[in-house]
Amino acid sequence: MRISRRILAGLATASLAVTATSCGGGGTSGSFDDTVTVGILHSLSGTMAISESTLVDTEKMAIEEINAAGGVTVGGKSYKIEYIVEDGASDWPTFAEKSKKLIDQDGVPVVFGGWTSASRKAMLPVYESKDAFLYYPIQYEAQECSNNIFYTGATPNQQSEPATDFMYKRSPAAGGDFFLVGSDYVFPRTSNTITKAQVKQLGGKVVGEDYLPLGNTEVAPIISKIKKALPEGGIIINTLNGDQNVAFFKQIQDAGITPSSGYYVMNYSIAEEEISTIGPEFLEGHYGAWNYMMSIDTPASKKFAASFKKRWGADRVVADPQESAYNMVYLWKQAVEDAGTFDDNAVREALVGQTFDAPQGPVEVMPNHHLSQTVRIGEINAEGGFTILEETGVVLPQAWNQKHPSSKGFACDWTDPSKGEKYKL
Amino acid sequence: MELLLDSLFNGVAIGSVLLVAALGLAIVFGLMGVINLAHGELMMLGAYTTYVTQLIFKLPILKPFYNSYIIVSIFLAFIVSGVVGILLEKTIIRKLYGSPLETLLATWGVSLILQQFVRSVPLAYGTGLVISLLIGLFLPTTFPSKIKESINFKYFKFSSWLFAALTGVLTGNVISSSVSKLSRASARNVDVTAPSWMRGQVEIIGTAFPKTRLMIIVITLISVIAITLFLNQSAWGMRIRAVTQNRQMSDCLGISTEKVDIITFGIGSGLAGVAGVAVSLLGSVGPNVGGNYIVGCFMVVVLGGVGNLLGTVLASFGIGIMTDLIGAGRLLSIWPDMPLALSNIINFFATTSMARVMIFALIVIFLQFKPTGLFPQKGRMVEN
Questions:
Q1: For the segment B59-99, what is each residue's pLDDT rounded down to a tens digit?
Q2: Is the entire prediction scored with pTM above 0.95?
Q3: Per the CB < 8 Å rule, is A277 touching B329?
Q4: Alpha carbon of B347: minimum distance to chain A alpha carbons (Å)
């Protein structure tokens, strides 16, 4: 009895010693002087998990890359970036709650997070009241400009406007009538309001629009409407969400609404990831508009795709939202290094004007906390990628859309205290 | 004429999706009075069965028969959902007969379990598990009655479950090693691609109809006819109707109500599986696919009158035709020069979201006047 107890005690000390050394090895290893912990907040469960987990993967990869290159250097000290991943659970109040936890309890200097506009709207008051900073990586409907959020996705004038222009002027259905289809929530409705104003300006006609309630996959009434409104073919602008696209494209193909019969669909929510889920055979010949497409033939783009595949598996793809997520981690690092501190207010000032050689090409942070970006129009090909047809120059972001009736003539500028969130141009 | 035909077809197409989904529930909820919130998930299992069957038919040995996989999957889906339904009845629902609130909560829990199951278990092993259940539940019933009545029957039962488990693990491993897509768990939605003969359109009397829609209508018709024949012509059908009308009396007359319950629930669940095949042809297959239909199913059964198949049929086609009439704004094209005020109202409701609101509102109003639905049940059960 006594012996065994002694052995046990010995074992315990030994194991303690092992843990102690391994702790020492893991904490501030090698060349780093200190560590800084950032927050990552996306849905890892629930309906949004499929999309949002790809962002977590990308953000982790960016952080690992930065660490491998020596970490963040602030005030002459090098910091290793560590992260805490929280699960927003596809539930908007949870996003707000976890934000509070990350800011108050973990004391992170920055949170990378969000996907849906609903989750962002839920988090916004938290960051504004605590004067903390959220980096948000998704293309969205804009009409918002917070001093406490940094938006690295496209605004409508960086995605839907050039796309509408392309469809009306240069697509095979040029000059044709428009039909707008979307899921029934804020992004499609706002985006379509802008599209309608733009089509009117261009001299075209929107002959119909319809919204599918989220979760509904019965597309038959919409198909009859499209056939009635566009009997000879035309342009369809699609802002459906996620799985509803599968139902939509399966059923319109069966109903004979295909490129070969003169119907061309322009999509704002279908990237490489979605193409592989829906199946290229349903999408071939339709269009998409993004800032980043995996088929961009530059060394930066190829390197981004290759490192992602190397890190997470050869069958994985990269798409526009992931590129935005990748950019924002690097932009934060640059801003922190320029500011020489992790303090929010100093970083915010240093952030505006930062440039980064992103996989899509150069991007720059504008005074309205959005990015200047390049816009690309691609045709979906049989291999499940985009054949890039057009590429704009760098397009400046409009936080307040100039075609939407409620925000026409307004802009946002956080570098000038007299202007701020929304001022008249 | 073409317009009318088109509208009628669309209405029937939408209605038949509702009907095939609600048919199983019409039996489980309508005849047995069990509020089964896991009905949608039994549909989901059917949809996943279609997906698994499709992948297995892509293997070299079965490749020549690939075009017929959809027919095979209808039968397999019936069996898979039926077996899971029977297990559900034997383990949970049986204990809760007569307490609807508890049934509701328990089946809601089961629906969550099933959703999470397909997210976190590789489909290959899921298939293996279903196969073991199938063998474990049915092998003992095939033994000669001499063994069944013997005191050692429990050992036979035990060894057949052991055999079932082994077979399940084995098939799971075989499938997992031969079809790589099934060997990993994934929360991602998957896709069923209809074989080439079912894609595109056919022309009937000058109007083009999508083939998948026709296929769903055919599946629905066959299911309705088969279940009607079964209930009205077969001996077990008669027993089911007898138990529905008066459980105690049937029990006294020597009908094994326990067996009747299992069979009824199994058939209802199996029909949910068939509905899953139909639904997989329209959209993607994911853990939430069934949840999207469950409300519609209950709506159809309640509107049709609980316990009445004809009511369910009429209610689903009624709702289908209304959805198309309102949602696609067809009234305007039927009567082009109606007064402006009226046409404005119709245009306001002529979107998919508003059509849904309108239809629910109409159903609520209808139920105010006929709370028991289109065809209220007459007889003793009503009095209880």
A1: 988 888 898 999 999 999 999 999 999 999 999 999 998 88
A2: no
A3: no
A4: 11
